[in-house]
Write a structure and sequence with these properties.
This protein has about 325 residues and is α+β, with helices and mostly antiparallel strands. It folds into two domains: about 10-80; about 80-330, no CATH class. It is about 20% helix and about 45% strand. It is built from three helices and 16 strands. It has helices at about 5-45, 50-70, 310; strands spanning about 85-90, 95-105, 110-120, 125-130, 155-165, 165-175, 180-190, 195-200, 205, 215-220, 225-240, 245-265, 280-290, 295-300, 325, 330. Strands 5, 6, 7, 8 and 10 form a five-stranded antiparallel beta sheet that branches. Strand 5 (about 155-165) and strand 6 form a beta hairpin. Helix 1 (about 5-45) packs antiparallel against helix 2 (about 50-70). The radius of gyration is 24 Å and the shape is globular.
């Protein structure tokens, strides 16, 4: 009897596995068909000569994408649209965020996207359509937003940090605004009520009202924004005895720290404050250092030290061109 029970478990497990594999195999065929049908639409979105053609194709693309994301086990599917569509998935499988832009004839950008996030109550993935309302927003750095009121971006990196057993997510994004201006954003995201995404959070240490950081600058400029882990020099206050008396001194030490590095931007000419088309990097690199689960701003960041022994495992990263640029009113990929 002792031998029969384990054998029964193995048989039932094998049958379940076969049924699951068969079901997922069928869904895989469905997802593959969706991808094939969506690819020519995406080519129109990025290459059609008129706004009307691009937006008609995008409307169909959104509809098919929405249908595909509601297919069982669709979270397992690896979407591959090259650099035209950004697909970021959290390592804990809590969510996936999908974003892309449509560029108008006049060089203006509108972003589109989806969030597919796990709902612990239903034990399924819910799907949320993102609606770009960035043109209508003021004081955007202070607002907490939802899928219906989204500060549109094409997200290029997903940062996962953990503090006191809780996972936190921060997105790094880019979008063109118009033919003259582009922007990058540091966007914290969390999930309320089970699975509903909430964009913008108070994860910035000592910056009470900041919910996201926005950098707007000239379309001709190149601004760096990236996540890295580097060795930095910090100073610790210590009391030491010297010549019979106790004095306070700062003792340097090196430690490896997680940080978001970005270029400071400012007007290229006096009197251009508030006009982002005239903003460019100042040459100063800034950083948000991760401390106690929050991002703490550090001016004049100097992540890599001069000692090659400390820096041998880190290579300076080049400034990346955005995935999308506008040249003479046409979208280039």
């Amino acid at each position: 009897m002792k031998k029969i029970i384990p054998l029964l478990v193995i048989v039932l497990s094998t049958l379940f596995s076969c049924r699951f594999s068969s079901a997922f195999g069928q869904n895989r065929d469905v997802m593959s068909a969706y991808q094939r049908n969506m690819q020519p639409l995406l080519e129109k979105i990025t290459g059609a000569p008129t706004d009307n053609e691009r937006y008609n194709a995008n409307e169909q693309f959104v509809q098919l994408f929405d249908e595909a994301l509601h297919v069982d086990e669709s979270f397992e599917w690896r979407w591959d649209f090259g650099t035209a569509v950004s697909v970021l998935t959290s390592s804990d499988r809590q969510f996936r965020i999908i974003t892309w832009p449509v560029v108008r004839d006049n060089g203006e950008y509108e972003c589109f996207g989806f969030v597919q996030s796990y709902n612990p109550k239903s034990e399924n993935y819910d799907v949320y359509v993102l609606h770009d309302k960035s043109d209508e927003m003021i004081s955007v750095q202070e607002q907490v937003l939802d899928p219906d009121n989204w500060y549109g971006s094409v997200y290029q990196e997903l940062i996962e940090t953990k503090y006191e057993g809780k996972m936190y997510y921060t997105l790094l994004g880019w979008t063109g605004v118009n033919a003259l201006v582009q922007r990058k954003v540091i966007e914290p995201i969390l999930f309320r009520g089970g699975s509903r995404p909430q964009f913008g959070q108070s994860l910035f240490r000592r910056e009470k009202n900041l919910r996201r950081l926005v950098l707007e600058y000239s379309s001709n400029a190149m601004v760096n924004l990236r996540f890295d882990q580097q060795i930095v020099r910090t100073y610790e206050n210590k009391k030491i005895k010297k010549k019979g008396r106790t004095i306070n001194t700062q003792v340097p030490r090196e430690e490896k720290m997680k940080m978001i590095l970005f270029d400071e931007v400012a007007p290229m000419l006096p009197g251009m404050e508030g006009l982002p088309q005239y903003y460019a990097p100042t040459g100063t690199e800034m950083a948000y250092i991760l401390r106690d689960g929050k991002w703490e701003l550090r001016d004049n960041a100097q992540g890599r030290l001069s000692d090659p022994k400390l820096n041998k495992e880190f290579e300076p990263l080049p400034k990346d061109q955005p995935a999308y640029k506008v040249h003479n009113g046409e979208a280039k990929n």
